Amino acid sequence: MRHRSCVVGIATILSAGLLPLVAVGCAEHDPQQNRSVPSCTAPVFPAPYTAVDPCSADAVLTSAARVMFTYQPDRQPDCAATFLTAGPLIEPDYLHRIGASAAALMPITVATWEEWASRHIGVTATVRITADDHSADTGTRARRVIAVTQHPDNEPPNAFTAYMQATRTGTHNPWLVTDMEIK
């Protein structure tokens, strides 16, 4: 299916003497023309992450951040558990290297976690990619600066920044989180 971009205003263009611009600015666009560009063929993530686009570094990073910073302290032993919950979105070697020390990456103390657990306080995270500078993307690496705001039930929000990286080994594999730093 082809789409024409410049149909409106031909009479105005003719009357203004801009006909040469019409030839330059009004080309047909064929959505099939980019077929030679390799497309992503990464498999779908397992449940509950089937809606996360494995071909989008942004989707993987924001979904992982949302999961890692949303807490249920009365049901999870510590905040490292939230890191493990996001496991399908994290590169296995990175997940293995971080292991139980993932709690050290998280922006809350053990005392706060225990208090929230005793009071049955849940924490929901909202995330967004910021316009902050980061290194240029490549076909296999993307870095993002992500603003995270945690919303504990009946408490003031907690805002911080996560510097995250995702990598993939080719268009046949999904983007996965491979690095994170909290500031």
In short:
The protein has 183 residues and is of the alpha+beta class. The protein contains 7 helices and 6 strands.
Give your account of this protein's structure.
This protein has two domains: 3-36, no CATH class; 57-182, Nuclear Transport Factor 2, Chain: A. Helix content is 28%, strand content 22%. The chain is built from seven helices and six strands, in the order E-H-H-E-H-H-H-H-H-E-E-E-E. It has a four-stranded antiparallel beta sheet with strand order 3-4-5-6. Strands 1-2 form a two-stranded antiparallel ribbon. The longest helix has 12 residues, at 57-68. It is globular. The N and C termini lie far apart (48 Å).
Q: Roughly how much helix do the residues carry, as a percent range?
A: 25-40%
What's the alpha carbon Rg, rounded to whole Å? 23 Å
Strand order of the largest sheet: 3-4-5-6
The CATH level-2 architecture of the largest domain is identified as Roll
At the first level of CATH, the class of the largest domain is: Alpha Beta
Distance between the termini: 48 Å
Number of helices: 7
When the domains are counted, the total is: 2
Instruction: Please name the CATH topology of the largest domain.
Output: Nuclear Transport Factor 2, Chain: A
Task: Say how many strands there are.
Answer: 6
Query: Which word captures the global form?
Result: globular
Low-confidence stretches: 1-37
**Mean pLDDT, all residues:** 81
Write the element-wise H/E pattern from the N-terminal end onward: EHHEHHHHHEEEE
Report the sheet with the most strands, covering strand number, pairing sense and barrel closure.
4 strands, antiparallel
Structural class estimated from helices and strands: alpha+beta
- Strand percentage lies at 15-25%
